[in-house]
Amino acid sequence: MEKIVSIYSNDIIMAGESDIAKDIYEKSRFGEPKAKKYYYSLFEALYLVEEEKMDLLDDKGKILSSDSILRKAKKLEPNFWVKYCAYKEMRKRGYIVKTALKFGADFRIYDRGVKPGDDHAKWILYPVHERHVFTWYEFSAKNRVAHSTKKRLLLGVVDDEGDVTFYEVAWTRP
Question: How far is the C-alpha of 74 from the C-alpha of 99, rounded, in Å?
Fold first, then answer.
């Protein structure tokens, strides 16, 4: 099976335009097309490598294993593994997952069958480890971000084995 060939350099993951990159983007919205290239987040790249749909090369042309990608990602972002577990679980369930930094969240989740650009994301997702403790202020802030962006709040609670339980939190009016 043909794979996307991408390069990881200076914390950017990029692949040239190819039929396979275009096809995977069109079907599942992996990557962002810009100027005849596709740019991928570390979450997308690791997932595609694990699914054997991408070869990720370092600047010397050596193929990076999923373990080496994970090690590099953890150096950049200590909470990467927790976030990746939630990302991976949502992707396996058939949702399109994109970063949501401009919303003040980790990810935005599109309902099944909905692609970014066709409609808005339904949820914003905050992955947390099961031992993480929220203050009421932090919890309220996450709720406010979801409410102000007209999205539902989804908490992805990750245990030590990488299993994820999702909780949807909503405002209610008594």
Answer: 17
137 and 165 in a single domain? The answer is yes
In contact, 120 and 135? CB cutoff 8 Å: no
Can 72 be counted among the known catalytic residues? no
Q: From CA 59, how far away is CA 70, in angstroms rounded?
A: 17
Q: Is 151 a catalytic site residue?
A: yes
Report whether pLDDT(172) > 80: no
Q: Is 129 a catalytic residue?
A: no
Residue 20 maps to which CATH number?
A: 3.40.1170.20
Say which residue the tokens 């909905």 belong to.
114
The span from the CA of 64 to the CA of 49, in Å, is: 9
Is 46 within 8 Å of 84 (Cβ atoms)?
Answer: yes
Note if the pTM is more than 0.90.
yes
